[in-house]
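Give me the 3D structure for Malate synthase.
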Amino acid sequence: MASQDAILQGVSVLGRVQDSQKKILTPQALAFLALLQRSFNATRKNLLERRKVRQAELDRGALPDFLPETKHIRENPTWKGAPPAPGLVDRRVEITGPTDRKMVVNALNSDVWTYMADFEDSTAPTWDNMVNGQVNLYDAVRRQVDFKQGAKEYKLRTDRTLPTLIVRPRGWHLEEKHVTVDGEPMSGSLFDFGLYFYHNAFEAVKRGTGPYFYLPKMESHLEARLWNDVFNLAQDYIGMARGTIRGTVLIETILAAFEMDEIIYELRDHSSGLNCGRWDYIFSVIKKFRQNSSFVLPDRGCVTMTVPFMDAYVKLLIQTCHKRGVHAMGGMAAQIPIKDDPAANDTAMEGVRADKLREVRAGHDGTWVAHPALASIATEVFNKHMPTPNQLFVRREDVSIGQNDLLNMNVSGAITEGGIRKNLNIGLGYMEAWIRGVGCVPINYLMEDAATAEVSRSQLWQWVRHGVTTAEGKRVDKAYALKLLKEQTAELSAKAPKGNKFQLAAQYFSGQVTGEDYADFLTSLLYNEITSAGSPSPASKL
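Predicted structure for Malate synthase (542 residues):
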């Protein structure tokens, strides 16, 4: 095996490393990252090129379908995913959020079963956010994350078992530009996964759980295969038994929905199920078919979980997971309490209750909340209707979903000026916060993250591109979109503190709402605004 110094040749850290971060960015950990990058980055880049080829096919009018070459996998009833791992048998309520220290303590103190610590859509990937997040999780795994902020103390509770920690690394498309290997930016996925796994895998097992992950934004089973290869190498490298890692895949792209069996199959020894990433899924439908006028959707408030294409996706996900013996996780309740309006708060919480009731009755094994106050509602609903730790036995053999069901865009509702302005407000509000380094933003009593901002800008692009007419009789064109963007920017900027980033956000947004340019992801578009790469430090000197 090559020496550590040899492996570290060509590895540079361009972000400033604080003393508190040195326990994470050790030469040994960086050597592990370099090994992952050199082993898998070429495959990652090839898979991203494959996405572009697939997009070009869709732009020409092709429609996705179940793959004929993997029919034997779908139709073989005998193979199964891995049995639920320790700490993942009962996942009825999961809380999600970024990895800042306050959030980590509050999430682990919540009355939930797991906490998904998010390096992806609810975190703006500044260097400090990503590395400090790793510091916080390192300390949380070891139960040494308590801290004081002003007069307030944040301490982990000791009166019960803490929720199981699950980490969501960034998707395959994102890079970590503050670390380079052989002159190329590090994969964000491998950076996030590698640091957490290297430092915490054995400690998590010792404490009764394991190194568990949520895997985002995949578009094919080949991308799941890559994660499985990463998992095997990582476990072999540190001397851990294969199959200790678990990965729950977020089905949040329309293309992945046609490959759910195959995705579980590729990860099967490491699979802990699939999750309905609802907002990203809607974003993906608009994005992938943005050139196809048959896929124009109405105001985002009309695109609920009960519209045909969303209902079909949920049913197929539950059926597929339970056929393979793995968890089928429900989606996010993004509401946050409305403290100054009890009537409005009651209405919002009833909406949460109805959503969770729909999920548990459909056969989901658990659900997501964004705020600790919603945990009791979700728990009450799941406890009443799911007295068992999960409902893997609910086979949903009554379900028969085909291509037409997943692509059924029969969604009632109109496109309104109010809907346009709402999308502009959400997109601007989120982008402005993201540029300031904040990845999770309360807007109109909903916790918005990158996925909801993506829905907003993609709808705007789609409406202009296809020249739709609003319910008020106005044709949506480039001039109209830019006029409303200017008005909403001025309104939001006037209400915000001095030094806000709304004008900068609007500059980026203006290129995304005219039906012309379309960035693959907003986070990729904005990333250079939050990088702070300086002079390279050789990894061996840290």
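The mean pLDDT is 96. Let me know if you want a second pass.
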